[in-house]
Amino acid sequence: MYPSFLVHSLLLGISFTSNTYAQSLYDSVSDPTKRAEFALSRLQIWYNSGTGLWDTTGWWGGANVMTMIANLAKIDPNNAQLQDLARRVFANTIVQAPAKNPQPGIENETKRRRDVDPGNGTFTLFNETGLESGYTKILNPWGVHEPVTVFPLGWDADEGQYVDVQSLRNFAPSSKDAATQAALATTPNPEDWLDGFYDDDLWWALAWIGAYDVTQKIEYLQLAEGIFGQVTKAWPTRCGNGGIFWSWKKDYMNAIANELFLSTAAHLANRAQNKDTYVEWAELTLQWFLNSGMINDQGTINDGLTEGCANNGFQTWSYNQGVILGGLVELNKAAPNDTYLPLASKIAKAAIEKLSDDNGVIHDVCEPGCGGDGTQFKGVFMRNLQMLHEAAPDDAFTDSIKTNADSIWLNNRNENEGNTLSVVWSGPFVSPANASTHSSAMDVLVAAISV
Ligand SMILES: *[C@@H]1O[C@H](CO)[C@@H](O)[C@H](O)[C@H]1NC(C)=O
Ligand SMILES: *[C@@H]1O[C@H](CO)[C@@H](O)[C@H](O)[C@H]1NC(C)=O
Ligand SMILES: *[C@@H]1O[C@H](CO)[C@@H](O)[C@H](O)[C@H]1NC(C)=O
Ligand SMILES: *[C@@H]1O[C@H](CO)[C@@H](O)[C@H](O)[C@H]1NC(C)=O
Ligand SMILES: *[C@@H]1O[C@H](CO)[C@@H](O)[C@H](O)[C@H]1NC(C)=O
């Protein structure tokens, strides 16, 4: 079904002659950049050119894969093939992925303004849009309350279709090809990227900011601004007169959506024209977040709030310890305040303490049976820890990133599957791995390049 790994390896300029080596051969690869490049060769086999997404990562997971690729492209600027791959992926995904939005149109404000808050915290939703697709996200009621995404029936029916990235259009303005011209003439529509779950929307906003950082293409930044602008309509919740809900259902206030809102605003403040507006949003969100009680006595962050607006004591998922770090780093850059980096470092250290095993390897409590959401979390933490380390270097951060990268490479990699990376970073390899587990682990390999 797929051509050999050789093609991909050549594509990235890596010498790779067979995928049947004994495990030990790749164990000796210790150059972080090479590790990440090998892993990228494997990752792209899941890239589905027809959908612009990576098969098995779902919808918002795709945004995280894109962010990771953007980070790798930023940190490895001299690898021409990687630069080309990243650009072609962004250019293809921006055209193809909107068709896979699992619930388009649901956030349309003009149609939803009859939502009623009777004052007791229960919003009545009028189903007049006919746009509910069955896409939803829930906290698994069993055990650890893991967030779980439910897709509309048949959503992921697409078979993976390998294509050589070289065959993807790169949408160069000089091209005479009609499809390229049509794609270039179309301005990306932020509404195409909204699905009713504000965290999903904002993962995509951050992904397009990453693409902008790599390419300086203004359309990508404008798309991120457009998505953020739509999500501002979700402010405020009924708690503390601020914050955003998890979704259009207005039934849960959680950490992830609000951390992403803060981080996206802060990223935009450093890139877009309306700097002051974005700084204001970021500061407002931070203030609300700090007052919300989601940061607990140990300095880690729980999943969300109760109906009564108190910390619900749910899991301290790794991604909730991560997104806020990058948000604080970017906000400190846009509007410095002596408290931001110390706060970020305090959260990061508390998280490393809470989530690491005796060998320093990070875990989420859903392991080894994490669902498609839980498999993404740890990479998000590491990606943001690296951002913090750049702004406020600390040996504890370097140690954590290096320890986890080494453990992933030595204990959590299946060489017989072309160096696939799985979900339990301390190992042993859990089968089957997929693009979600693989890309999340790649976040660490990428972070390790710069520490
Ligand atoms: C939202 O509703 C307005 C008014 O009905 C309509 O013009 C617009 O196309 C809708 N947008 C989407 C994405 O459905
Ligand atoms: C909230 O108020 C509405 C309207 O009065 C009522 O129908 C609903 O049952 C109430 N919900 C709760 C959870 O009390
Ligand atoms: C909303 O309307 C659509 C189309 O009429 C229908 O398919 C869907 O089941 C409805 N959703 C709910 C929650 O009633
Ligand atoms: C710095 O940030 C903290 C926390 O958000 C805030 O309470 C304080 O007012 C800020 N200081 C300045 C000078 O803006
Ligand atoms: C990807 O792997 C995770 C962890 O094994 C699993 O929960 C998830 O369902 C997989 N995704 C798909 C689409 O198979």
Automatic annotation (TrEMBL):
<feature type="signal peptide">
    <location>
        <begin position="1"/>
        <end position="22"/>
    </location>
</feature>
<keyword id="KW-0732">Signal</keyword>
<dbReference type="Pfam" id="PF03663">
    <property type="entry name" value="Glyco_hydro_76"/>
</dbReference>
<dbReference type="InterPro" id="IPR053169">
    <property type="entry name" value="MUG_Protein"/>
</dbReference>
<dbReference type="GO" id="GO:0005975">
    <property type="term" value="P:carbohydrate metabolic process"/>
</dbReference>
<dbReference type="InterPro" id="IPR008928">
    <property type="entry name" value="6-hairpin_glycosidase_sf"/>
</dbReference>
<protein>
    <submittedName>
        <fullName>Glycoside hydrolase family 76 protein</fullName>
    </submittedName>
</protein>
<dbReference type="InterPro" id="IPR005198">
    <property type="entry name" value="Glyco_hydro_76"/>
</dbReference>
<feature type="compositionally biased region" description="Basic and acidic residues">
    <location>
        <begin position="108"/>
        <end position="117"/>
    </location>
</feature>
<feature type="region of interest" description="Disordered">
    <location>
        <begin position="99"/>
        <end position="119"/>
    </location>
</feature>
<dbReference type="GO" id="GO:0016787">
    <property type="term" value="F:hydrolase activity"/>
</dbReference>
<keyword id="KW-0378">Hydrolase</keyword>
